[in-house]
């Protein structure tokens, strides 16, 4: 028996900011699961900034999505029929799936959700890829230490909000950077930032840099870099000797809107301050997921970690929600609710 469903494919490649014309919602039919496959009903779908890169033909760390192929995303889903002995109907799993209401996926490429450990959507956020990214950048890349000062950009986002909280729990001085007064207030009240600076209110990098200096008179030891653009330009002059920059993301440049600043002034500071700058992609560190979960899962269970979600309802709403994410309209983890949680 086949399964009728709907999916969203990449209709064309965006030149700059993606628009509705770049996506197409279409019906499709899925076959019964073959050996090693499971047919799932998608419950939650995660939207993440890296998807903008996959819409472009430019070479990157993952291949581009082909035109007319489905977009894909981290999803939580319920197995409705299984061709693999390791999974049965009713099991809830998470993994990479198409933007769709149902999907046929290899059983070995999904993980079973630990029942009752956390709300299901948390496996796409604080306990999932963004959470692991925050933990990795802070610990494995920046080697952040108690007593140091850290700047976290996109400080209320899925990655930044956990990075800020883990940094605060380590005993660091935490300076957040976020867009708008409401997000900045939340960064301080909920995510453990001592101070949060509004990059949208600062007219230029110089102003933001002066604000960072006032907030961190002894300089910055670690920069958790999520955005590039004006914020990066502002932070670099404030870095201390032997400072570390964990380059996690550069969302300001993803749509080619805010061009990279000229390199030379920054480059000389790297030398004079003996900075260590390291880019990382979370999937290279997945072998360390048990260490991440051992630290963060008990904190989540005890209610000691806070997070927010922005939820779009239904597959049809995904393109607009994704465009909003790239413009900072989301507040915390951007999700799409595709189906009901299992009853
Ligand atoms: N390296 C990896 O393996 C890895 C894994 C996951 C995510 N990432 C990266 O980590 C970063 C954060 O991801 P996330 O999932 O936590 O996203 P997110 O924070 O939920 O959403 C992106 C946020 O970026 C901010 N932003 C957008 N345009 C900006 C601009 N021009 N200048 C400054 N800030 C801007 C907005 O917040 P404001 O309103 O506060 O400006 C927006 O809400 C992204 O760059 C993403 O690509 C990397």
Write up this protein.
By secondary structure, the protein is an alpha/beta fold. It folds into 2 domains: 3-125 and 307-337, Alpha-Beta Complex (Quinone Oxidoreductase, Chain A, domain 1), CATH 3.90.180.10; 129-283, 3-Layer(aba) Sandwich (Rossmann fold). 26% of the residues lie in helices and 28% in strands. The protein has helices at residues 51-54, 129-141, 158-169, 181-189, 205-215, 229-235, 263-272, 289-301, 318-326; strands at 3-10, 23-30, 37-46, 72-82, 92-98, 102-106, 110-112, 149-153, 173-178, 195-198, 220-225, 239-247, 276-279, 309-313, 333-337. Strands 3, 4, 5, 6, 7, 14 and 15 form a 7-stranded mixed sheet that branches. The protein has a 6-stranded parallel sheet with strand order 10-9-8-11-12-13, sandwiched between helices. Helix 2 (129-141) packs across helix 3 (158-169), helix 2 (129-141) packs across helix 8 and helix 5 (205-215) packs across helix 6. The longest helix has 13 residues, at 129-141. The model has no long low-confidence stretch (mean pLDDT 95).
């Amino acid at each position: 028996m086949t399964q009728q469903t709907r999916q969203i494919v990449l209709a064309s490649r965006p030149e700059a900011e993606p628009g509705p014309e770049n996506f197409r919602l279409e019906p499709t039919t899925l076959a019964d699961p073959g050996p090693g496959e499971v047919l799932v009903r998608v419950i939650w779908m995660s939207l993440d900034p890296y998807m903008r890169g996959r819409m472009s033909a430019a070479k990157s760390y993952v291949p581009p999505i082909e035109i007319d192929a489905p977009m894909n995303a981290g999803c939580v889903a319920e197995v409705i029929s299984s061709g693999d002995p390791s999974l049965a109907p009713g099991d809830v799993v998470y993994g990479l799936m198409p933007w769709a209401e149902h999907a046929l996926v290899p059983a070995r490429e999904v993980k079973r959700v630990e029942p009752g450990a956390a709300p299901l959507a948390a496996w796409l956020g604080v306990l999932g890829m963004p959470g692991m990214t925050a933990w990795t950048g802070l610990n494995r890349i920046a080697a952040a230490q108690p007593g140091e000062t850290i700047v976290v950009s996109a400080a209320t986002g899925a990655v930044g909000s956990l990075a800020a909280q883990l940094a605060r729990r380590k005993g660091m001085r935490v300076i957040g950077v976020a867009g708008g007064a409401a997000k900045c207030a939340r960064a301080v009240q909920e995510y453990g930032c001592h101070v949060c600076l509004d990059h949208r209110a600062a007219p230029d990098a110089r102003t933001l840099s002066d604000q960072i200096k006032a907030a961190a008179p002894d300089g910055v030891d670690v920069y958790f870099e999520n955005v590039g653009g004006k914020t990066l330009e502002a932070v670099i002059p404030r870095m201390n000797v032997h400072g570390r920059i964990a380059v996690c993301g550069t969302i300001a440049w993803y749509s080619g809107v805010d061009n990279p600043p000229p390199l030379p002034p920054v480059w000389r500071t790297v030398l004079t301050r003996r900075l260590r700058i390291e880019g990382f992609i979370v999937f290279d560190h997945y072998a360390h997921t048990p260490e991440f979960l051992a630290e963060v899962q008990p904190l989540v269970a005890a209610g000691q970690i806070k997070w927010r979600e922005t939820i779009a309802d239904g597959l049809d709403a995904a393109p607009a929600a994704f465009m909003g994410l790239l413009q900072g309209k989301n507040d915390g983890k951007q999700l799409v609710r595709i189906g009901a949680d299992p009853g």
